[in-house]
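Can't paste images in this forum, so I'm doing it all in text. The chain is below; anyone willing to post the predicted structure tokens underneath?
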Amino acid sequence: MSKLTDTFGAKRVFLPVVHFADDFNFTRNIDLAVAAGAHGIWLINQGINSEGLMVKADYVSKIYPELWVGVNMLGVPISRRLLDACVYAGVSGLWADDGQIAILAGRGHQPVAEAIKDSLRDWQGLYFGGVAFKYQAHVPQSMLSIVAATAAQFMDVVTTSGERTGSAASIEKVRALREGLGTAPLALASGVSLENIETYLPLVDAFLVASSIEDDFGVFNEHRIMELAETIRNYDA
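Text version of the structure:
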């Protein structure tokens, strides 16, 4: 059993990404995610600075002590200071867009990824590391399986995306990553919607969704989040 499955007790995991627009919609989005039966949420420092985001994470952890909360701290390197802040705020997940897998090294030495893994050794949370992720170095299709297999040694959940925010990943890309990962977990972090979720469900373990369930930045659409959560939940059933 993977650390992802052990944490959530589910084979398919729905983790909405909550952007901060204002206090009202932030709280509303959390309430909607909980009501939809999401397995947890991601908070991201877009629309809010890093310090403010950790204050919000601490608030959510106190209001919903059973809710799994992760953070994506764009531009903030993983460090002991960040991990200490996560523990203090009740954060259980870290997501880095760039998992620092050196593509040209293939299955060889990965010093930066190894250093991140070492820094997380005593941390009990889940680490989602970006691989073949948007706005990072392009990974050729022929290398995807090798890169995925390598990445699985350094992170709890290999996390990929389409080419840009809101863009769906090609099914060929997702299949190649799945082939390299075997049974290790794969997360998809862009372009997932009600229209394409059925395509990804056989291949992807965790869905990190924002754009397709928003009416506007930081404003969830109640119908879409409920229906997407139900679709993912029913696949396991």
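The radius of gyration is 17 Å. The domain at 3-236 is CATH 3.20.20.70 (TIM Barrel).
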